[in-house]
Write the structure tokens for this entry.
Amino acid sequence: MALTTDFAGIRPDSRTADPKQDHSRYRIVPARHPERLAGTIFAAVVIIAVLYSTFTNPRWGWGVFAEWFFAEPVLVGLGRTLLLTTLAAISGSILGTALALARVSKSPLLSGLSWGYIWLLRSIPVIVLLLILNNLGYLYETIKIGIPFTDTVLLDYPTVQLLTPFAAAFLGLTLNQSAFFAEIVRGGILSVDHGQLEAAAALGLPRRRQAFRIVLPQAMRSILPIGFNELIGLAKSTSVVYVLALPELFYTVQVIYRRNLEVIPLLMVATVWYLIIMTGLSVAQHYIERYFSKGAVRNPAPLPFQAFFDRFRRPLPILNRATDRVRNTGFHDAAALRAAGGIVRIHGISKSFGSLRVLDDVELNLPAGSVTAVLGPSGSGKSTLLRAINHLERVDEGFISVDGDFVGYRRKGDTLYELKEKDILKRRADIGMVFQSFNLFPHLTVLENLIEAPIQVRGVGRQEAVQLAQDLLARIGLSDKINAYPRQLSGGQQQRVAIARALALRPKVLLFDEPTSALDPELVGEVLDVIKELARTGTTLVIVTHEIGFAREVADTVVFMESGRILEAGPPARVFTQAEHPRTREFLAKVL
Ligand code: ADP
Ligand code: MG
């Protein structure tokens, strides 16, 4: 044994604390779990008993089973079942998603129609629905498509010819499937954090893009498990279409056992095929769920073989590390980033929530390129003021203009026309917003977070957007994180990416709502440094913050708010040392 040092005066049992001690003599014995062993034996007995009975009882008729398993009529029926399942699954999911979007739409009529459809279709048993469709020819002898109120007919077909049993089955299953699927999708949409929608709206992404790029992919996490449950249900419920005498798998099997009376073996043929289909679906579910989990978990479990394939994959583009050194030279020498700051005028705005007056006749002028720090106790209306500036919140009175353009309105003479959401979203791109809770899109990588809005809203080419994103990342010192997902970053890094995301649109005005409040104290500095650099680029900045030292250093103007009013505004040197208003002095005494 190597351990010969004499621990004079030290009690032998305290030697284990010595890190240099040789541990090779230790042996690890796994904990014993007698109850687990008992469980394993029980499971083994059950499995053996089931297998024994299944293979020794001659009445299962495995010989007959083998004879029919690959028989042509069975395979044809199987093909029909698979086709029907696939078609109904695809069209049911598309229709269901559309119904769910209609259901959450702001149009009461559209939402009501969707609700009614879902109510009706969920109430009717599939079998009844199928029979009704099959007898549609009795209700309507022909199906006509023409121009209403004229004699023009584009298509005129006898219903029975058009609605074959297969078409009826397809239609019935689709209608039924879509109603259930709609509710699953709606549940998924409701499960997505509202901050995600706000962030997407603040970037000015169009509504469609918000739905299909930001909300639905995140909703998929909760849609998939229930959706696949539904899909498996659909694959099985195709067996009810036997009522239409459509020779799918189950009907075919029935026809055969009625002739040869080998009921059990033939039912087994159908059962084993169903098992195979469901196994396929379960495997597919695993992979699809895993795909949509990217960004939702910090470390996704590797797929089987993934490590093997990764070795051959081309490495993702990683910026030249040297560019990181540019960081300290700041933003101001990056021509791409120099944005002309906007002039913000806030004219007597007021806003109430119910009886609570959250903003009360607020008047403020922010020159181009100015840096304004907004201070005030919690609940004083600071966030509401910022949200009013980019029209995430609509004010009741007064108006706000950026470079003479009214936020949320179009001026014609002396009339202000409220803009449609589509146009508001476009204009919003000029006003960036950074949230306390970052609100990065967790399912997109850092690069994808940065290029989404420039491409979609500004119409910038992908190449250029990527280049700009790389420049921005180099400047915030995060080039090596370009392909990381937000959850793989620290809070400070996430907030720096969020600032870069807002900057990628080259906004005229950038709003910060307590950008460091969610951060650990030691991470605050790195975010404030980025904002300080930014203060010299000419973008107009409005920063709600409790960091007094920071406000004193970077702000031209400090605004103190309380109960929705601006009590005091002025240069930091004056406000921080000789505030006029006693409430300001009281507040500063508490936070300084
Ligand atoms: P601050 O950011 O200064 O802490 P906020 O602007 O978030 O304050 O809120 C100001 C006041 O308005 C608070 O009393 C808050 O409860 C209220 N408020 C904000 N948004 C809403 C809303 N959507 N509905 C009702 N009350 C609201
Ligand atoms: Mg706030």
About this structure: The chain has two domains: 67-293, 343-591.
